[in-house]
Amino acid sequence: MDAFVIWIGSSWLHNWINLSPWAYPAMEIVHFTGLSILFGSLLLIDLRVAGFASFINMRDAMKFIPWAMFGFTLNLLSGTALFSWSPDTFVANVGFQWKMGLIFIAGLNALWFWFGEHTELVKLADGEQAAPAAKVIAIVSLILWLAVISVARFMAFL
Fold this sequence. Notes:
Elements: H1 2-9, H2 12-19, H3 23-50, H4 58-62, H5 65-85, H6 87-92, H7 94-121, H8 132-154
């Protein structure tokens, strides 16, 4: 981790984000947009899978997975740029540490969903309920992403 912090702290990205008056605010806008796309998509998918939005066709809900991946990609790229601003500060921040840990767990949960439940969900008929395991994954997903958003807000104060 130290090598990455040193490398990114001396990279062109670090220079750009620190020297350009608009780079950091622009990356924050991209980061917030990515989060909105990611969480909006996951909210629709997870509420349907958990059984709280049975009026949505499961196959239609699954069509939002690429949007969630797009939002996550925007967050990954913009988050890396924001991190490069002051990597030592972020690494030492307890809120950032929690955020990264929760994102890692959410990623494992997403892999469980994709490889364990996704193929069965797209086969469900209109109004048919997901398996209990899929419902657990969906609820855990919502809890984890709400926690990520919450601890991210604390980063400025820790």
